[in-house]
Design goal:
The protein is mainly alpha-helical. The chain folds into 2 domains: 1-30; 32-68. It is built from 2 helices and no strands. The protein has helices at 3-29, 33-67. The relative contact order is 0.05.
């Protein structure tokens, strides 16, 4: 493969990605207000769970270091 073929493949992939992004953006902005609230709740809950798991993991890591 030469550079021109790689550029054509990259451009084709970029075009497809931008088209998909446009469709996703149109889909998201077309949502009703209650879907945005549901998405926000899921994102906040996911962040909370991730934070709790991270704290728990750090606590168990500190305990194992102290035991050694």
């Amino acid at each position: 493969m030469n550079a021109h073929n790689l550029w054509l493949l990259f451009r084709q992939d970029l075009t497809i990605a931008l088209r998909n992004a446009k469709e996703v953006r149109e889909m998201l902005f077309g949502l009703e207000w209650y879907w945005w609230i549901l998405i926000a709740i899921v994102v906040v809950a996911g962040g909370y769970v991730k934070l709790k798991l991270l704290k728990k993991m750090m606590a168990t890591k500190n305990e194992t270091i102290e035991e050694d």
